[in-house]
Amino acid sequence: MDTIQSDSYPIFFDDSLSELITFIKQGKYSRTFVLTDENTSAQCLPVLEPLLAELDNYDLIEINAGEESKNIDFCVGVWKMLIDFGADRKALMVNLGGGVVTDLGGFVASTYKRGIDFVQVPTTLLSQVDASVGGKTGVDMDGIKNIIGTFTQPKAVFMSAAFLKTLPERQILSGLAEMLKHGLICDADYWKELKNSDLSLPSVELIYRSVEIKNAVVIEDPQEKSIRKALNFGHTIGHAVETNSILNDERPLTHGEAIAIGMICEAWLSHKKAGLPKEHLHEISTVLNGLYPKYPVPDTCHNVLYELMQKDKKNTEKQINCTLLTKIGCFSIDNICTEDELCASLRYYAAL
Amino acid sequence: MDTIQSDSYPIFFDDSLSELITFIKQGKYSRTFVLTDENTSAQCLPVLEPLLAELDNYDLIEINAGEESKNIDFCVGVWKMLIDFGADRKALMVNLGGGVVTDLGGFVASTYKRGIDFVQVPTTLLSQVDASVGGKTGVDMDGIKNIIGTFTQPKAVFMSAAFLKTLPERQILSGLAEMLKHGLICDADYWKELKNSDLSLPSVELIYRSVEIKNAVVIEDPQEKSIRKALNFGHTIGHAVETNSILNDERPLTHGEAIAIGMICEAWLSHKKAGLPKEHLHEISTVLNGLYPKYPVPDTCHNVLYELMQKDKKNTEKQINCTLLTKIGCFSIDNICTEDELCASLRYYAAL
What we know:
Two copies of one chain form a homodimer. By secondary structure, chain A is α/β, with parallel strands linked by helices. Chain A has helices at 18-27, 38-43, 45-52, 72-84, 99-111, 125-131, 169-186, 188-195, 204-220, 235-248, 255-273, 278-291, 302-311, 339-350; strands spanning 4-5, 10-13, 31-37, 58-63, 91-97, 117-122, 139-141, 144-148, 156-159, 320-327, 330-337. The first copy, chain A, has two domains: 4-166, Rossmann fold; 169-350, Dehydroquinate synthase-like, alpha domain, CATH 1.20.1090. The model of chain A has no long low-confidence stretch (mean pLDDT 94). Chains A, B: It is found in: Cytoplasm.
């Protein structure tokens, strides 16, 4: 499998992760810090440790697993550990984990001593196809996702399919939603290929294609001024549904489950407002509804969801901006949607 | 007085601050937030308020005055206020204050929703000639200055001499130390002019010249990889003395008072290690010692000061890097100094 070259950094596809060790050695870093969470310490670190043993020294920093840890308090904990370890500006941070670890670790590294180098080693399908490419770092605050963060590129990304084998099916499906999104916004053939594949464990080739699509978009618009907004398809409604679920459900939706709901709703909006043909809407709804469990979105929660959408950092002056589809494989950004339209789309999903 | 053009933003010299209002109006910001501390709310905001009244809306956010407020807790407070106010990505932050307000406000703005626009309105001599130019933002942690922060440029800087008239003499002297440093590292004529001036309130022309020097240096090396380190002259030892004073003294040294001590010590190191002629060392010591009150630096505190220098973000792998002078007006970066040399320089200062 080839290496993908992003704007300023390479994305390695290498199950052995030997490229990672070569990278660290060549970088002549003063010290290497590996950030993990409880899960990746147990599941993924053992894969890495024999390789890390080749280094002169490295230190481990562990945070709690889960979106609840993605906050400024955990950043303070990691910053203080870096200070205690005497980390200098030539230190390297290796973020080994899912989106929480890569987003939080990237933010901590990008702000420690005004920025030290970091690399991403995403260990979930979701973080491989989404969080680890594109240079967005961040943590949540007051229930708002990624509200505090920076745009900072990692020095490299290392993808290993070895990590995916231990993932529960629900986590695979979570990442799959982003892959399906990449097809829907940019590549009808890829969408078609995906929906006809065995999706219990997507092949490296399919993952590679997804990273290629995301990478091409973010290279063109790193700061999300224009076409990067394409990646927000499904996320205006999906983020609100996800946040609401995290705040209220005992077993919250995964990111992908929420985004799948968002994509169905926003496909409906695309049909109403952006010319998405009826048969395309039908196809999207059928595929997504078949893959993801049905989730109740009663009329009584529309108010709360709408408020969450207004707080979303994508939106300005309380107007809700959606990325919609004009057909499968083609997007249209900056479509202002009214509260009535958004609620109607939620009703469309509920009635499926 | 001309406007100085920095890398990506203008630095306006305009006592009336009318340019600030023009800037805000032309920027079509969704909302304007003015960050102050207790002191600038009382002393400086009244100057701005008649102008701000021309805007459709603006909101005030106030933090406590003083270096003790320059921490992550106050950032969280300001981030949460921005969230509560519903600030979107097109909001503007106006940082009205000294270095604490401009550094903390810059950091908060550069990380809120991954970065909103901010402008600096420095109200002390120190922040006018130092903190507000160069795109360094940050806050302190565990007693280490500016350890968490970003390199982010403001959209503009607005200098008004009107604010300086209310400053106590000690604050003027604090800023003056940085001006003298600019002369010492880059411009012997400017140093000469400064030392022969009435320094109780430096003229706008002298301030302008200082900003010109700092701006020229940071444009060439925004990320402090090379020549920007020139600005660290006096700061390796000065920062340690300052931090130690903040932690221990009832009435801590100002930044400038500490940097003046640092410059005397590092001038001695420059004489020993970098060829600074003896008469230049004598001249520097005499001028600085005459302007700033003598401060006790007994041998018993050398240990603590050395530990603080090791934690300074300028230093790597526990080696202490100093910027030294080869003569007045010329600097030399990356001079490694041993513990013995650093302690000897402190003894030189103590014996003056």
